[in-house]
Amino acid sequence: MLEVSLVQKIVAWVPPVLFAITVHEVAHGWIAARLGDKTALMLGRLTLNPVKHIDPVGTILVPGLLMLMQSGFLFGWAKPVPVTWQNLKHPKRDMALVAAAGPGANLLMALGWALVIRLGLQLGDTGLALLFMGTAGIFINTILMVLNLLPLPPLDGGRVMTGLLPGPLAWKFSRIEPYGFMILLALLVTGVLGKIMWPVISLVMGALGLVSGLPARDFQQVLFTLLGI
Predict the structure, then answer these.
(1) Cα angle: 141, vertex 30, 139; to 5 degrees
(2) Does some domain include residue 142?
(3) How many CB atoms are located within 10 Å of the residue 163 CB?
(4) Which residue range is the domain that position 161 belongs to?
(5) What is the pLDDT of residue 1?
(6) Which end of the chain is more exposed for a tag (fewer CB within 10 A), N or C?
(7) pLDDT digits (tens, 9 = 90+) for 192-227
(8) Distance CA 28, CA 52 (A)
(9) Tens of pLDDT along 89-106?
C-alpha cells in the first residue's frame, strides 16, 4: 500500500491541473488566430503563463476542495479565451475547429504524461515523483477531454455539434447554451453524468496506461492513492 502525504499529493496534482486547463485554453486561442481571429493574441492570452488564465474559482477553489474532500472526481476550468467569431474566415466551421482544439490539446497532454510515467519507471525509485505526476496528468486530462466533448453547449462538444448541424438545427441547438450549466449540474447530482463519462474515461485511461508501460493494476493503485480512495 502506497503512503503519500498531503504535500506530496499537492505537488503531484498542481502542475498537471495547471497545464491541463492552461494549454486547453491556449489551444482554443491559437487555432482561432490561425483561422483569422487575433483577439486572444492581442489580449496576451496566447501564453503558457498560468497566471494569465487562472480563474480563482475554477482553477483553485473547486479542484482544491474536491481534492481535500477526496471525492474521487477532480476537474476545474480556466478563464475562457475570447474568440470573436465574426473575424473567422468560415465562422460556423471554424468555431467547431476552435472548440475541438481544447479537448485535442488535453489528449496530447495525456499522451505526454504517459511518456513521463515511462521515464519514471526507467529511473526506478528516483522516478516515483514522475510516476505520481504522470498518473495525475493522465487522469485530469482524460476527464477534461471527455467532459468537454459532451454535446452540450457551452461545452466544446456542444460548439462542435453546432458547427456540424445544418443552419436551422444549429440555431435551435445553440439556444440550449444558457441552460447548459444547470443541465450539467443536474446530470452530475443525479449520477447520470458519471454513467455517461466513466466508461469512456476508463477506456481512454486504459489505452494511455498501455502507452505508459505501467501495469493496469499498479496504475489504478497509484491513482486511488492520489485521490485518497
Answers:
(1) 0
(2) yes
(3) 19
(4) 6-227
(5) 55
(6) N
(7) 988 999 999 999 999 999 999 999 899 999 998 888
(8) 14
(9) 899 999 999 999 999 999
Burial environment of residue 127 by CB neighbours within 10 A (0 to 12, 13 to 18, 19 or more): middle
The pTM is what?
Answer: 0.89
Q: Is residue 82 part of a domain?
A: yes
Those residues whose C-beta lies under 8 Å from the C-beta of residue 165, and which sit 6 or more positions away, are 173
What's the distance, CA 175 to chain centroid? 24
State phi, psi for 53 to the nearest 5 degrees.
-120, -5
**DSSP structure string for 45-108:** -SS--GGGT--IIIIIIHHHHHHHTT-S------PPPP--GGGSSSHHHHHHHHHHHHHHHHHH
How high is the pLDDT of residue 60?
73
**Annotated catalytic residue: which of 18, 22, 25, 152?**
25
Q: Which amino acid, residue 40?
A: A
Residue 1, in any domain of the structure:
no
| Assigned C-alpha cell, 129 | 515523483
Residue 3 annotated in active site: no
